[in-house]
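Input record (one chain):
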Amino acid sequence: MVSKKMEKELNKQLNAEMYSGYLYLAMAAYFEDFDLSGFANWMRVQAQEELSHSMRFYDYVVRRGAKVTLEAIEKPDFEWNSPVEVFDHVLSHEKVVTDLINDLVNLAIEENDHATNNFLQWFVAEQIEEEESAAAALNKVKMANEASNGMFLVDSEFASRVFTSNTSE
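The corresponding structure, as predicted from the sequence alone:
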């Protein structure tokens, strides 16, 4: 069993992960409008990952005998000025998610909730990967922006990204 405060915060994170998926779908749609299907694919994979993260929180809340509470998902941004701006947004968003996860870990430590702390350690490691991936993608897009055919090369590379479910415990 988790405390009512932890239940509330876990549900907030579940909803935040769903928002992340929604945000990345908006980014995918942005790239689809420019026929950059590789960029759109990168974002669709990112959206799938975030939705799988939300399901991980969902399952944990249920397993701990707490109540899942779904809230309305905020409308995400859907217009950007350039691919560089989109990926800059991705990196800054992932940093916000890292802060949210760290806040949850701090709460678990404060409440001596070892089970939740253990559960959250997967997300701590995952956020390191998420920030690295976002930073690497941003750097590629920045470099590609400087070359005449660079965006098309990066678009082709991003098209090969695939979703691999990592929700198993």
